[in-house]
């Protein structure tokens, strides 16, 4: 399989890919186009070129909104997901407070924030990607992601990391990215190293072990 990454504003997708106007949501020749998005969303499309030469939309990322709390809670209340993040499932009340802060973060920047990852074929929720500006050092942002266990080991985390880095490249104020992982999370470490992050230091965060990795943009 071969991956082709396309970064477009939704109304231009038809021109970019040489398709009929998307407002009618056809299934045009050679392309399975099954995911609908509002016209003003800037997002990243990942296509897989299959053996039969058909292009299949893989994942879509767009900012979390008020109505997405149930998906968010499904993620952070999953003990497997949180094992190397908080080492515990997050209870409902705490998740609600965290989600309110997430929405505030999203409102502060058009380019950065917390992004809902969904399967473009069936719309099913996959996980969360984040790209959050940091006060120190200036010009830096934190990159991170969480996926539901059903989507582990399928290459999605690497695609999300690539999406977030591309988004960061388009945010003109950013010069560096950092990522914080559990040192035992070898899968995430491998993904970040493959995307040219390098280890900077090991330290505790709220009493939990952490490794900081960074890269320049």
What is this structure's SSE topology?
Blueprint: E1 2-9, H1 13-17, E2 31-32, E3 42-49, E4 55-63, H2 69-76, H3 79-82, H4 92-108, E5 113-119, E6 125-134, E7 140-147, H5 156-169, E8 176-181, H6 186-194, E9 198-205, E10 208-216
Parallel strand pairs: 2-4, 7-8
Antiparallel strand pairs: 1-3, 3-4, 4-5, 5-6, 6-7, 8-10, 9-10
Helix pairs in contact: 2-4
Describe the structure.
The chain is an alpha+beta fold and 217 residues long. It has one domain (2-216): Gcn5-related N-acetyltransferase (GNAT) (Aminopeptidase), CATH 3.40.630.30. Helix content is 26%, strand content 35%. The protein is built from six helices and ten strands. Strands 1, 2, 3, 4, 5, 6, 7, 8, 9 and 10 form a ten-stranded mixed β-sheet that branches. β9 and β10 (208-216) form a beta hairpin. α2 packs across α4 (92-108). Mean pLDDT is 80; it is low at 1-57. Pfam families: Acetyltransf_3. Residues 59-197 form the N-acetyltransferase domain. It comes from Erwinia persicina. Keywords: Transferase. InterPro entries: Acyl_CoA_acyltransferase, GNAT_dom, N-acetyltransferase.
Silhouette: globular
- In total, the number of strands is 10
In whole angstroms, the N-to-C terminal distance is 28 Å
CATH superfamily: Gcn5-related N-acetyltransferase (GNAT)
Please identify the top-level CATH class: Alpha Beta
Alpha plus pi helix count = 6
Low-confidence stretches: 1-57
Mean pLDDT: 80
The CATH topology is given as: Aminopeptidase
Known CATH architecture: 3-Layer(aba) Sandwich
- The computed structural class is alpha+beta
What would you report as the Rg, rounded to the nearest angstrom? 18 Å
Sequence of secondary-structure elements:
EHEEEHHHEEEHEHEE
**Count of discrete domains:** 1
Please bin the fraction of helical residues: 25-40%
The main sheet comes to:
10 strands, mixed
- Tell me the strand percentage band: 25-35%
């Amino acid at each position: 399989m071969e991956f082709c990454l396309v970064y477009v504003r939704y109304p231009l997708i038809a021109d970019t890919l040489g398709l009929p106007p998307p407002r009618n949501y056809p299934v045009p020749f050679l392309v399975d186009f099954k995911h609908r998005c509002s016209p003003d969303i800037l997002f990243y499309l990942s296509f897989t070129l299959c053996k039969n030469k058909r292009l299949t939309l893989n994942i879509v990322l767009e900012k979390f909104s008020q109505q997405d709390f149930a998906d968010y809670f499904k993620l952070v209340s999953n003990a497997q997901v949180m094992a190397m993040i908080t080492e515990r499932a997050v209870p409902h009340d705490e998740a609600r407070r965290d989600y309110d802060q997430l929405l505030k973060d999203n409102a502060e920047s058009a380019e950065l924030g917390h992004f809902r990852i969904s399967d473009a074929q069936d719309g099913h929720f996959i996980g969360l990607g984040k790209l959050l500006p940091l006060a120190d050092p200036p010009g830096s942002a934190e990159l991170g992601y969480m996926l539901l266990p059903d989507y582990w080991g399928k290459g999605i985390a690497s695609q999300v990391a690539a999406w977030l880095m591309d988004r960061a490249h388009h945010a003109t104020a950013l010069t560096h990215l950092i990522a914080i992982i559990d040192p035992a999370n070898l899968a995430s470490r491998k993904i970040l190293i493959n995307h040219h992050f390098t280890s900077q230091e090991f330290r505790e965060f709220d009493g939990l072990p952490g490794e900081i990795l960074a890269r320049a943009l």
